[in-house]
Design goal:
two-stranded antiparallel sheet; mainly alpha; 240 residues
Length: 240
């Protein structure tokens, strides 16, 4: 197997895990807390690899929860064609971002990381494998995000009839817990989405390592249009 495929796969998986754990469950829904030192690392990583801020990602996701499956939903397969949501995640995110207050620009450290990552790939594996890794990363990462937004609102069971989304339990394993999409919309502040939540064992391990502070209370989260000011044990606004 080409090294670029392996690097791209693990890069996409890591980016998806950081998105799910830090941007989604922590920042968007405040399901648990991340220790300050860990939050700084995750923040810098996300800004460098995904090229946006965790706060903006969380704010767009909260728009989805507030307006799920209505014309104001940033990415509803019931308002758009499913293939548009599946393949158009970057464009739909960019459109939704215009509805939010302006975000601060990247710091010098983040800019340096954005340059250093592709340079490191070019030096270590060469230009061809760097292109392969980039393509696999984009397909994997955007594919997971697109599948969550598409399948989770079209197919499955509905244990909470008055809430958007559907549950397909086995999809929780490849989609990082999002097989329980209807249950997540019903209890967005729950740290665990359901019995087959593939992220939950990792969260338990991070809690044992004292990197996160878990709180598995199933309490609905508020959904303001702007990103929360803080989810970690320190203000996000002061981090660079």
């Amino acid at each position: 197997m080409p090294i670029g495929v392996v690097l791209g796969f693990f890069s996409a998986l890591l980016a998806a895990l950081v998105t799910e754990i830090y941007c989604h469950r922590c920042l968007a829904h405040r399901a648990f807390r991340v220790k300050p030192a860990v939050a700084r690392v995750l923040d810098a990583y996300f800004r460098a690899v995904v090229w946006t801020s965790p706060e903006v990602w969380a704010a767009v996701h909260r728009l989805h929860h507030r307006y799920a499956d209505t014309p104001l939903d940033p990415h509803s397969p019931r308002q758009l064609r499913p293939w548009q949501v599946l393949l158009g995640s970057p464009y739909l995110f960019a459109v939704a971002r215009r509805r939010l207050p302006a975000d601060r620009g990247p710091s010098r450290v983040v800019v340096a990381l954005r340059v250093a990552v592709p340079v490191a790939y070019l030096v270590t594996v060469g230009p061809v494998q760097t292109l392969v890794a980039t393509a696999v990363h984009l397909v994997g990462y955007l594919g997971i995000m697109g599948m969550v937004n598409t399948v989770g609102h079209l197919y499955g069971s509905k244990p909470h009839p008055d809430v958007p989304g559907y549950d397909v339990a086995w999809l929780a394993i490849p989609l990082l817990g999002h097989g329980y999409h209807n249950s997540h919309h019903a209890h967005p502040a729950a740290a665990r989405t359901g019995p087959l939540d593939s992220v939950w064992p990792l969260l338990r391990l991070l809690a044992l390592l004292r990197m996160v502070e878990l709180d598995d209370r199933r309490v609905p989260a508020r959904a303001p249009e702007a990103a929360p000011a803080c989810c970690a044990l320190m203000p996000l606004a002061g981090r660079r």
